[in-house]
Amino acid sequence: MQEPPPFNATRLIDPPATRPLRQDMIQQQLRPRGIDDPNVLAAMATIPREQFIPSIHREDAYGDGPLPIGDGQTISQPFMVAIMAQLLCPDGHGTVLEIGTGSGYGAAILSRLATRVITLERIPRLLDQARARWRELGLDNIEGILTDGTLGYPPQAPYEGICVTAAAPSTPTALIQQLHPLRGRLVIPTGPRFMQTLHCIHRDAQGNTVTQSHFSCVFVPLIGQQGWEEKDA
Ligand code: SAM
């Protein structure tokens, strides 16, 4: 197996000016809610969330909630990014697929936990912005692709982890099919339009799908062939 890439660190990674804010976020929002994976905590401690937020909201970058990023979309709450990464449990190896690039922050966190991240987005402007942010930070193991993520990304399957950051009415079968049969985990919020449950799905030794349900959450809709129709969003 390939080793995870070293930080191709630029001076923008872990900027000292906002380091105390990241530490407060960890102590007040993440650890008390059960985030204890050292690799997840290290990623949350170093990736500057303010770089992924429109300037008018930057003062709230380390607040305990989602923030608007334009086009009716949001950057997820820090805790949600961290718990999804922790449930995915990447071991520093393999390729992780993210559905819903948004600001690019979630992919930046996952890029510290896997060899490679492929992230799919349906809104061109968001993807262009995210690519520019990764470039600026020197995060060169992330590939952003403009496509309907409900169908996954077959060319690079199977995936060690799939993280869906928008809410689906039910789990797209395409994503189950693209999970690594032994090690793959899929983290996805599913349910009615305005209230979902966060699920973690894997296959057992017999190849049966096993679903663990975690907690209630609210995400923007996953719009596409195996998600919501645009008119329902
Ligand atoms: N992970 C993001 C971050 O760190 O900022 C948060 C993502 S936001 C909550 C959900 C994103 O999913 C939006 O950017 C939305 O455009 C995208 N999305 C919705 N349906 C999609 C689809 N079928 N394929 C790809 N992206 C989709």
Could you give a quick summary of the protein structure above?
This protein has 6 helices and 9 strands; from the N terminus they run ααββαβαβαββαβββ. The protein is an alpha/beta fold. It is globular and about 50 Å long.
Structural overview:
By secondary structure, this protein is an alpha/beta fold. It has a single domain, classed as Rossmann fold. The chain is 24% helix and 21% strand. The protein contains 6 helices and 9 strands. The chain has helices spanning 19-30, 38-46, 78-88, 105-110, 124-137, 173-177, and strands spanning 67-70, 73-75, 95-99, 116-121, 142-146, 161-164, 185-190, 196-203, 209-217. The strands form 2 sheets. A 7-stranded mixed beta sheet has the order 5-4-3-6-7-8-9. A hairpin with a 2-residue loop joins strand 1 and strand 2 (73-75). The relative contact order is 0.13. The model has no long low-confidence stretch (mean pLDDT 93). Residues 73-76, 99-100, 102-103, 105-106, 120-123, 126, 148-150, 165-166, 219-220, 222-224, 227 line the site of S-adenosylmethionine.
